[in-house]
Specification:
This protein has about 400 residues and is α/β, with parallel strands linked by helices. It is built from 13 helices and 15 strands. The protein has two domains: about 210 residues, Response regulator (Rossmann fold), CATH 3.40.50.2300; about 130 residues, Rossmann fold. Helices cover about 40% and strands about 20% of the residues. α2 crosses α12 and α5 crosses α6.
């Protein structure tokens, strides 16, 4: 992995070890001062970005990466970021955590140890974001992400996320669908290895009493599993009115396909806008039609800057935009606003600015932080939708 990439580049090899660095130096492929002990280049704001670019969470990570790259390009096209009268262009270095928490931790430590990096954006999945939250405080590196929805048990003032999360979005989704579909019996199938998906499942159990339904089947699986016949058999015998599928897109395609092949035709629910993703539609041959999910923005009826963003994004990148594309864009814009308010590239000063930030991004996302006590966005929006086509939906 190279330690420096221009905007638009990415890395997936997992980091540069001391042994690998030594080999490169000996071979004359890189000079030691270019990496070790290098001061921040004048006029350049370096940001690291960790995302799952391969594996079952790749549809999330790729969108977050691409949205961030477009945000950086937009800022740079306007002359860069103004920090007390000095202009800085944004340079993003991307590392692939391969849907592995240990890989995310390794990458984060490497970036934090390099003083030329000002902050890290991402990951957009909870597998990475959850373990990086306490680590951000330990290594004193600002962490700003969108997409992760798992419960954070203990926050620190170095970690932030801009998106709706399980405890705020899933209850709204459940309330809407339970009333519309008259759900009295709910089945849940969830990936126990994914923090965000496990959080969704827990919320389904927690909300049962208040919303008047019973969880009649609660089935776990592990990321990478191929056969869900045992879980589906239990759900079939439980006779649910609806099924909540708490899974990443990669594994969820397999789960939904096998559910429908088993002739279970009751409504399906999921979080994080996943059913709206064209990848989900294509992978299931449209069998997510009629399924419910939530979005942070109304992508079907965008206006102004959001429409312009979606048009430019879909023209530039091969995978259509989803909410995660917006998270990637807004994370960069939010961090850039904190830097401007801080008037400094010092990590500590930026951390303090993030802790009291209140900004409306160009895409219409209201981001409000008050940390302490927590790094959650206090003003997220949630739109409940029912998928009716490839990437299209109606309001539920």
């Amino acid at each position: 992995m190279s330690t420096k990439f221009p905007v638009g580049a990415s890395s997936s090899s997992g980091g540069l070890t001391r042994r690998r660095l030594g080999g490169l130096v000996a071979a004359g492929l890189v000079s030691t001062p270019a990496i070790i002990g290098k001061a921040r280049a004048a006029g350049v704001l370096k940001i690291s970005k960790i995302e799952p670019l391969t594996g079952p969470s790749a549809p999330y990570g790729i969108r977050c990466r691409d949205g961030a790259l477009l945000a950086a390009a937009d800022i740079n096209a306007k002359g860069g970021l103004d920090v007390k009268g000095e202009k800085y262009t944004i340079e993003i270095t991307t590392g692939d955590m391969v849907n592995d928490a240990h890989q995310a931790i390794t990458l984060f430590r490497q970036y934090a140890a390099d003083p030329s990096f000002t902050a890290n954006l991402g990951p957009g999945n909870s597998v990475g974001f959850v373990p990086l939250t306490p680590l951000a405080g330990q290594v004193r590196m600002p962490l700003v992400a969108g997409g992760s929805g798992a419960l954070i048990k203990q926050w620190n003032t170095w970690a932030y996320r801009i998106s709706p999360v399980a405890i705020t979005a899933v209850p709204v989704l459940l309330k809407t669908v339970v009333a519309k579909e008259k759900v009295k019996r709910l089945a849940v199938i969830y990936d126990q290895t994914q923090d965000g998906q496990a959080a969704d499942a827990e919320v389904c159990k927690r909300e049962a009493g208040a919303l008047g339904y019973e969880v009649v089947s609660y089935q776990a699986f592990r990321s990478g599993d191929q056969d869900f016949s045992a879980q589906i058999a239990h759900m079939r015998n439980a006779k649910p009115d609806a099924i909540y599928v708490a899974s990443t897109t990669g594994d969820g395609v397999k789960v939904v396909t096998q559910i429908r092949e088993s002739r279970l035709d009751m409504p399906l629910l999921t979080g994080y806008g996943s059913f709206q993703d064209a990848v989900y539609w294509d992978g299931t041959n449209g069998q997510v039609k009629g399924g419910y999910t939530w979005l942070s923005q109304d992508l079907n009826a965008p206006g102004g800057a959001l429409k312009d963003f979606l048009d430019r994004y879909n023209k530039r990148f091969p995978q259509e935009a989803t909410s995660f594309s917006i998270y990637g864009y807004d994370a960069v814009v939010t961090f850039a606003d904190a830097v401007t308010k801080a008037g400094s590239l010092d990590r500590e000063v930026i951390r303090a600015a993030l802790g009291q930030l209140d900004v409306m991004t160009a895409l219409g996302t209201h981001v409000t932080f008050k940390n302490p006590p927590a790094g959650e966005n206090l003003t997220p929006t949630v739109v409940i939708v029912q998928v009716n086509g490839r990437g299209t939906y109606t309001h539920a």
